[in-house]
Amino acid sequence: MKFLFLGDIVGRPGRDAITRHLPRLREQLRLDFVVANGENAAHGFGITKKICEELFAAGVDVISGGNHSWDQAEILGHIDEEPRLLRPANFRAGTPGRGVGVFDTESGLRILAINVMGRLFMEPLDDPFQTIEAALPPGAPVESGFDFVLVDVHAEATSEKYAVGHFCDGRASLVVGTHTHVPTGDAHVLEGGTGFQCDAGMCGDYDSVIGMKKELSLSRLLGRLPKPRMEPAEGEGTLCGVLVETDPKTGLAERVEPLRVGGRLRAAWPG
Length: 271
Known about the structure:
Largest sheet: 6 strands, mixed
CATH superfamily: Metallo-dependent phosphatases
Radius of gyration: 17 Å
CATH architecture: 4-Layer Sandwich
Mean pLDDT: 97
Low-confidence stretches: none
Helix content: 10-25%
Strand order of the largest sheet: 5-6-7-8-10-9
Distance between the termini: 15 Å
Number of strands: 13
CATH class: Alpha Beta
């Protein structure tokens, strides 16, 4: 199975990168399934129903979330109705939406997607490890009836992301980090067969401060203005993601490679 995970979509440049490149990538790479983190898709803060529809039309199968999942008030009425839109599963019980989903492709493949948020330097949510344990199959994905198992860990600390990777090793096809918007150079297969990359990066304009206009970020960091409203940078976005190929007998990763297309970053192409 060929699976593509796309990092945090930041504003219109990130959405444009998806709509410009993903249809071609799906065909050229013969992708079976695509998940993208969309928590910054609406002008950098949250996501809307319209943007969800735009991303689905471009070829995204499932959208995961993070700490900005609720920034657009309208999403509260939509997230319960749209099973393809996830938010971190370790929000307290009763929170709208869902953080775990099972999805079937037209070709008969079955994907389990788990979205959690870290707690180091983040909001004090429920324990992500316990949340993952409750949702993760006990053995390799195929043993539990899945062709692919994804864990999107939306977290600040690299140590916490790596810990989640090793915690899931041998049971997930891919553990990938989101939130920091910087693609890390550590894509590899862990000892037990789980693909891992500490952060997928972002789909957005890298002539920025993690996707936001650099002059506004500098004003805030230098103390020139107390709280200027952050706005996404407006240049050409880079599509950043992670491609995973799995062994059909186990559902575990055979290879995991970064993918970067367009914008300012050096291109990275699998294989």
